[in-house]
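dumping these here so i dont lose them again. two proteins, back to back, each one seq then structure tokens. dont judge the mess
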Amino acid sequence: MTTLLQSCLFLLVLSNYLLLGTRRVAGMTRLTAFQGLLLAALLLSLDHALLAGAVLLIKGALLPGLLWRTQKRLPADALICPARRVGFGVVFSIWLDGKLVMPLGLYPPLLLPTGLATLFCGFILIVGRIKAITQVIGYLVAENGIFLLGVPLMTGGTVWFELALLLDVFVAVFVMGIAINHISDSFASIDVARFRSLRD
């Protein structure tokens, strides 16, 4: 199980790099679904079968499905976004992991820096991308990082809290999807960079 855990963490870090370097929203959606699959496998390696099934269903299938449905209603120019390759988040996460004082044995090896790197990747996507749908994907990736940081706290009494958190994410992304649809129906572009051209 340790090999599976380490493999999932390595692939999560790799998917973060790919998310930052991908220009097409379709590719980012696939990577988001892949991260959901990796989170489910990671939980399975830690003997959280029930939560792994919920994560696979929600993060691996349902949320990417909503993103795919939203993409079909957007114009073609909204599905391509300039990429920004930023490796600072991963380096900072490794440095921060060495500085934080944690109880011995709380986090499996590499889990904390991977969670922090995923969180920072989500923040970079939210702040650095100019399309509304890519910012929604960034929100999902950031939540994946928060989820990873909460993995050691998943005892028998906290599983239901984690399921409630997943439900909150589902509702938030559903509302964001509706908002993006309404924005694209009302305006010619959903590029937030065009706000710079507004005048009094």
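---- next one ----
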Amino acid sequence: MAGAPQALRRLSDANVRIRIITHRLLIKYFHQVAARQTIEWLDRYDIPYWDLCFMKEKAAVGADLYIEDSPDNIKLLRAEGHKVIVFTNSTNEHLEEPRAHNWDQVVDMVLMEMENWEQNSA
């Protein structure tokens, strides 16, 4: 996605703990290859992350904030009470805000959330 590496580096520099959650372990006996391909892809595109989670149930990660584009995942996360920013694509335009249309908006929204957390915890 255009702008993603730069945006994620800005968030990482702001001490945001980035967790990549993916469900790529779909094919039996292919897990090592899928994990290696994912890590190589993230490294090639210079995507910073603290954790790499291979799991279907994204809510199990327990993140403070999710950035998601899959309508099914967004609905499930929200139904379980998790805060989700919708990354807009043609399949999720019908879902409620908060919503980001590009990675610069993601950065602004995440940093604003962090500021709100810091103010509420003071």
